[in-house]
Amino acid sequence: MARTQDDHVAAIETDGYTIIEDAIPAEFADALLDDLERLETELEITPADNAFEGVATKRAYNMLVHGGPWLDLPVDPIVLPLAEAVLGGEILVSTVSSIAIGPGETAQPIHADDQVMPLARPHVPTVCNSMWALTDFTEANGATRVIPGSHKLDHNPEFMTEYDSVPAEMSKGSILVWTGSLWHGGGANTTDETRIGIAMNYCAGWIRQQENQQLGIPPEVMATFSPRLRQLCGLGIYRGLIGHIDKQMPATKFYGDDPKADHLFDKS
After folding, report:
1. What domains are defined for the chain?
2. How far apart (Å, rounded) are the C-alpha atoms in residues 142 and 108?
């Protein structure tokens, strides 16, 4: 029996994460893989070569600027409502990036995505992130490692310290969703295959986004987005106040979007 949204929300509240099995068709995962391969070549993506991002891990950022299948990720009919339920609605896209963990990569340091925020733990959810599996995620090839229940702790992990964790193994097309306070990290890849995932991350409407999409996405590209996606990228207003321009929603001022249109906040 398939798990409901309530089941996933309950799992995130209890364990800090959940896995949505077979969330996307294999054909869509393949389309993302094909376009990612093209972009990695065109953009000449190479590993960052540092202790946190890895020495054999390729990362591409600001994926929405490339259009195509990437525009479907933020408005996914399963993940978006789940993120809204965790964060309380009126949320933003924080970042959309690819993470390809290559053979020989070591485990990423355990961390919490929201630990850069100067907030006493535990606190209300500020970030809800997801990892879309474009290949199978196994313990051997670097599946994300998680520490269940760690989002309830009153402190953050210490950088470069080893902690007991478990691999969030999942099949291609599945999606891992977690709250930003969960202790986690990419796993070590001891295989000869590359583990590829897409980080589709959200934040509460009152939190600054990880990627500055208002400047990172050219206006002519933003004009091709749906009104809903423009709102998620930061051209809406949080609770009718935060983010306005002369008391107008930015998307209304620049693109003529109707601030009262139901589709802007449609959760379907």
Report:
1. 5-211 (2.60.120.620)
2. 9
From the list 110, 69, 119, 72, the residue with the least C-alpha distance to 93 is 72
Q: What is the mean pLDDT of residues 193-197?
A: 98
pLDDT value of residue 228: 96
Between CA 258 and CA 251 the distance in angstroms is 8
The pairing of strands 175-179 and 57-60 is unpaired
With a CB cutoff of 8 Å and minimum separation 6, the contacts of 59 are 45, 48, 53, 97, 98, 99, 100
* CA distance linking residue 13 with residue 149, whole number of Å: 9
**Predicted confidence (pLDDT) per residue in 104-113, tens digit:** 999 999 999 9
**Tokens at residue 162, please?**
């080893």
262 pLDDT band, cuts 50/70/90, is low
| 3 state DSSP class of 15 | helix
d(CA 70, CA 172): 17
Backbone angles phi and psi of 204, in degrees to 5: -60, 155
To 5 degrees, how large is the angle CA 152–CA 201–CA 137?
A: 85
Give Cα separations from 195 to 26, 54, 61, 127 (angstroms): 16, 13, 17, 24
- Over the stretch 217-242, which tens digit does the pLDDT of each residue have? 999 999 999 999 999 999 999 999 99
- What is the identity of the amino acid at 179? T
Task: Indicate the length of the chain as a whole number.
Answer: 268
Cα angle value 118/124/130 (rounded, 5°): 95
